[in-house]
Amino acid sequence: MIPRNICREHILKAIDEIEVKGVPMGRKPKKFHLWYKDKDYPPKYVVSLANMFANGTELSPSFFSGGKEVNGFLTGLGFQVGRKKEASRRIQAKMPVTKRQTKHNERCGECKNTIIEMLRRLYGEVKVDHKVKVSARLQDYVRQPCYAALKRIISALQNHRGYKDFVKAKYLSRCDLFIPGLNAIVEFDESQHFTSARKLTLSLYPSELSLGFDMSTWEKLCDIIDAKDNDPEYRDEQRAWYDTLRDFLPLLSEMNPTIRIHMGDFKWCSLNPHDPKDIEAFRDNLMSILPHGEILGSKITTKLNIATVTIRSRGKYTNAYRTELMAKVLQKIGSSIDAVVFPAGFYRTKGRPSTEIDRFVQHCKSLVRSTSNYIMVVCFGIDGRSTKDQIAVAVGSNGILGAGRKFHPTAEEAGWVETANSADAEEMGYPRVFEVKNRRIFLAVCYDGFGIRHMGLMNPGVDIVFDLVHAFYPQGEEGSGDPYFARHGFAGAPKQWGCATFGAAVFFNRHIPPNWPTGVMWNQGNKSTKRWRYSDNPLKPYREFQVSCKTEEALIRVFKI
Q1: What is the pLDDT of residues 428-457, one digit of tens each?
Q2: Terminal Cα-to-Cα distance of the chain (whole angstroms)
Q3: Alpha helices in 226-268 (DSSP H)
Q4: How far apart are CA 252 and CA 53, in angstroms?
Q5: 213 to each of 134, 187, 262, 400, how far by Cα in Å?
Q6: Which fold has domain 305-560?
Q7: In 86-215, where do the E strands start and end?
Q8: Nearest 5 degrees, angle CA 545-CA 547-CA 549?
Q9: Sequence spans of domains, the chain
Q10: pTM above 0.70, yes or no
Q11: Residue 287 banded pLDDT, cuts 50, 70, 90
């Protein structure tokens, strides 16, 4: 699928690159040509090259289709695409650059791109054109419990129109999408999938087979559409058999039911993957067509990708520096990150945070919207009035999702810090608890992590705590207790509430301790937090990297939970 963030400017840069370096062997145009300034270029190679300017790498031609998909994409950006014999007419006519006038149809490439981005927003990582090794031959399933059902189906297909030998491949081709968080594949079903042969196979499915689509709807569509593909003459039976094997994945492996999306059901490209309302509309639409929503929908325990950003600072920074650092982190962080956690006091204001929060939030919104990495929410702290105000905010592409003020100050802060009335009090009209992919997240400000246990608070139904910590100083100085904080704050909160805690802090004028944990899950029973060791923690990042900006460096750790 063609990434949606490729724009006309990237296409023009690709054309300029071709003018300098030419077209490699094997990438010359075959049927169709992109016409620009009386010259022709290979459409597929141009888009592949344009991805390098949009996303940093040349897009493999196996990730998207030639013909209708790439041609529609380019004409949608105002370019002219046609066959070689049409060149003289196009050049002579000097057609003006206009948006595509063609009628929307089920093969719209933008619809597929929109669905992919929506699924990333909901479930995290989505692998396109993914290889799942599935044998196409019946004899390879002799030892499988579902062999009898598969044999009945292939026999019925062979008798349908008399074509016996339609299994030509050893293994099925790559699936359209694979979602690791769901452990399920997604297939885009266009009209050619709704045939009399397909209806025949559906009628023979065993009752124990779970499906990621509504069978009765698919059977009705087979009657209504009744597509016929006779190239080759047995193509309908072949496609129905291959679709059957993908549907049988829950019985053939440990995968969840195969999800099928009818591409003619809705104009998917009308939705905006950056708009929470459209994301919710997509989710509702998906739930309406999935009979097993309890497996694939709102109740599924999807994996979250959480990035913690711990900062090493030389002590001199400004709000502008911090914004630049945030921009670099978000650009570098990689795809499919659901939440990013920055430290408390990331920004500072002379007055109350409310006087400048709109500016900080606007910067963050712009960064989230501009990145192509599908980040859903960014959390950071704001301190105001010389730390009298200490709040944490969670910001998405449309603004603030949640906010919380410190409710449990240290002994030194008592009487100085203006605290929240309670651990569940709203801040600026926003709740402390917010949701990401149906997981409820609690915002804690620094010593609030201790407060959860010290105050004996009951879990208010949250799945994760984000504890935004202020800072640690060189050993021997006041405020150097990073091990103490890890034991009683980061580990204490999970012990009290039975959920994971993720946090970040600033280390001023000292190195970040390599083993200091930024993601903690309690699994030590009644063991005292005083005796808890870093090695007891089961949460380990699957990725680490660093970003530098001016006087500060950020250590980013990415967890999956």
Answers
A1: 999 999 988 778 999 999 999 999 999 999
A2: 28
A3: 235-247, 249-252
A4: 42
A5: 20, 10, 9, 35
A6: Nitrilase/N-carbamoyl-D-aminoacid amidohydrolase (3.60.110)
A7: 127-130, 175-179, 184-189
A8: 170
A9: 8-102, 112-296, 305-560
A10: no
A11: low
